[in-house]
């Protein structure tokens, strides 16, 4: 077995050293959707980052908390900042000021300013209280623009003016009365803080006018709302930085709109279209813009708008004109050029530009978005006046398909699938076999051999019709194979390839959409669909996606029900709610069903508290179903057949000791192929792996004692097979475990006291790896000896046996150079390739693939490895594991907000598919033991062919010479 | 033959009558009887003893037997003489898998096995009706020596780790222990 040793040594030594992604493989192996999230209406705008430059960028703070700039001409991301590091659900504020090279944002407790061109941070200030609104002061006494931030500090309204250069507080206004701070607005002379005054349910509006220089209260006006404003959401609009900011709200039935110019007591009421469902107010943000605004009223069947002017002298509001009711959804946006204000109206098929002064249409362009089926929800636009009568408009709109589109004079500029952010679940699925073939194969399987044979011959005869096409395609395939170009899949039909790289990735997002990507074709989106309709503010909490291969359906189990989606087309087949909330899904093997001869796997929903439905006796799964209980305990449920019904009973319950709380549970992946049941040591002895598929790792923390205890449980008997306690653990930080084959590892942040020197301690992100073996001794299969099978329950039940069979555990700790999360292990078809632990680098925004050899607990400590250990590929132990850039599978890409990484085996053994989702969507292929079974892109087929041809020619040329010489020798000797 | 008038006969006639001796490519294949080379060698062989015989009396059958036995023992112990050389070469070639050591190992196995298969041929020349018993001893010794040479090859192969003598060599045939119960995690 020496060759095996050498090769494993070689593989081991090499794969630790070199693991980089080659430059020519970028974009071929991997794909990356660099996303921002669905832009929010209030936080999206065009802005010119350089005063002297006319080019503008498109800025947005999305609903997942990513602030970024996009190039309006190409749709490429210029810069991105993930504000909180966590995926948020809407909120946040962004403002830019005309002519300034910075933009300002606020989220939660902090206010930040960014360089508009590069995205570099100018300042980041954290405050007490939550930010309620943000505004840029256009006019200050100094030669700079300042930032006004409204906070809600435990019920007190706090308004701070921050220095626009460094974020320091210029003045602070604090109103301790229990008002609900709403918005801040400013005109040239005053700053207005608008808050809800009164008791819950019947608020009045309180407008506090403040002095811009000192922040002293100048005036306070209470606007009676007659019970129409019940919460913050009822106030439709508080006018931005125009010369005359307004506040507007509607009554409950959306029949009247009440508008007040801030700083006055005058309240004006305008009637609204009948059946108006909601109202939006669009106004320019610039101080030099005319004080015009547009009221967009949406009805059930259409939308219309009214344009109002504010008379600056009298503070009266007059209706200027109206844009008529059009059917369908539409979006309005404002754009200002100097003092002029333009309104852009985007309907399902048109882009219409009007001036705020008069109702004359300045431009009208049909929307050429192809077959794009979605409707605009909201938009931002930019208008350029080319000549006296000619205008150019570009508008970036968010559609109800969660896409972000840019139309340039009606032409589609780009589309960004921003809806893929906020993904909550994903899975790999095989490309469905064509239905005809599947059907005829089934037919053949069921008929007798002779008819099956005839059927098959007939089928092959029919297939001959594709032969000419196939033959015609051969030269092209040959050429593309030689030149290394990709064979483009002609037609829309998706086919499996012989390497198995073409797989579907099904991605479900919290917005209720499902996407299908082709993992083999640079992540091309195949379809996307709205699987469920969600109410506003609701999220789709998907627990699992199950691919039901026989029926080509996806079963997407969410917390409140499940959806069935066709895997080919993405059509939603059925959406069904569940009676009680679902906490998880177990994929169980069911008995034979009427149609299929194979046992079918189906998803069993687990309800809150670890409850399951009673099942008909013939459907009951045989195995134990392991669930989490109501208090976080782990339970093993077993179905017991009682008459014709099967009821589940807990066969064991694992509750951690008092004070401990289970924070993470990991089980072996469903596909975890074992190539070898033992590890061959340097002296040719074997250490047998403890390979029990019914195990899981539970990490429990004790917050009071700052300890982490890792339990290894047998999931059939509930016995603890092993446990280890780590001290000095930061229980607030991410603690995660992952398990595969015969090992598991956990990562956490801890302070580790050195054993050799108790006075010294190491603080850092640790990775604790444990290997499980059947026995401590080599060549020993433990207490079970050569038994062909084992039971987890028997040793406990029978009094003569010595308790459960415990594994021998070898553990080693490493200190990681960076925190990692979203741990996953690569999966290959037969498990021959070594495994890699994949983790998301939360701080450097990448995915690292740590080779298993590096995280080997048997690495010799404090000495160089012996000859035998070197043959095994063991290196000397070093406590630190540095994140080598060569191990980062995302290389130079910045992948933000990864929540989960999934892996899948392919047909070739060397490769594993990787897919990461969260905010960004990233997929790649990794080969932990290198591509030993396929030729890489670097393989020069051309020179190989040239060599073969050259040799052939040489042989042809030399053959007569040699023949002549041979004859001569015969004759002349 | 007819060389009375060499001038009269053309050169080709002379060539035809006395063709050039062809070099036999493979010495192990004897030329057929009557072939010129056979005639020449046989005649030359005969010539040498013919020179010696006048001085010596022809050996008695007993003497011939002793002589043949001596020769047979020489043949039997022949492989042993090669052993130190082979051993040194094996030691020098090392235990790694390289083309040289692989060829060495191949030869180390091929030579004894071929020798064993050709045991009877090797002693055919020395065997007579009378010394059969004694030749048998030599044959046994020969076989033993070939086995020693074979053992050297086996030792080498073992040194190279090619013999399945350890537990790890049979690991692939050992089955994974199957669990009797199953659990489905839903966490």
TrEMBL record, chain A:
Membrane topology designation: Single-pass type I membrane protein
Pfam families: Beta-prop_EMC1_N, EMC1_C
Coiled coil residues, start to end: none
TM spans (from-to): 942-962
Main location: endoplasmic reticulum
InterPro entries for this protein: Beta-prop_EMC1_1st (IPR058545), EMC1 (IPR026895), EMC1_C (IPR011678), Quinoprotein_ADH-like_sf (IPR011047), WD40/YVTN_repeat-like_dom_sf (IPR015943)
Sequence ranges assigned to domain ER membrane protein complex subunit 1 C-terminal in this UniProt record: 740-971
Record carries keyword Ribosomal protein: no
UniProt signal peptide: 1-20
Entry's localization field: Endoplasmic reticulum membrane
Any one Gene Ontology BP term: protein folding in endoplasmic reticulum
Residues annotated as domain EMC1 first beta-propeller: 20-418
Gene3D superfamilies named in the record: YVTN repeat-like/Quinoprotein amine dehydrogenase
GO CC terms in record: EMC complex
This protein's UniProt keywords: Endoplasmic reticulum, Glycoprotein, Membrane, Signal, Transmembrane, Transmembrane helix
Homology family: Belongs to the EMC1 family.
Subunit composition and interactions: Component of the ER membrane protein complex (EMC).
Name this polypeptide is given: ER membrane protein complex subunit 1
Organism of this sequence: Coniochaeta ligniaria NRRL 30616
UniProtKB/TrEMBL annotation, chain B:
Matches recorded under InterPro entries: TMEM85/Emc4
Signal peptide (residue range): none
Keywords on record: Endoplasmic reticulum, Membrane, Transmembrane, Transmembrane helix
Source taxon at top rank: Eukaryota
Region called Disordered, residue ranges: 1-65
Topology in membrane: Multi-pass membrane protein
Membrane-spanning ranges: 99-119, 140-157
One GO term describing the cellular component: endoplasmic reticulum membrane
Family: Belongs to the EMC4 family.
Full protein name: ER membrane protein complex subunit 4
Cellular compartments annotated: Endoplasmic reticulum membrane
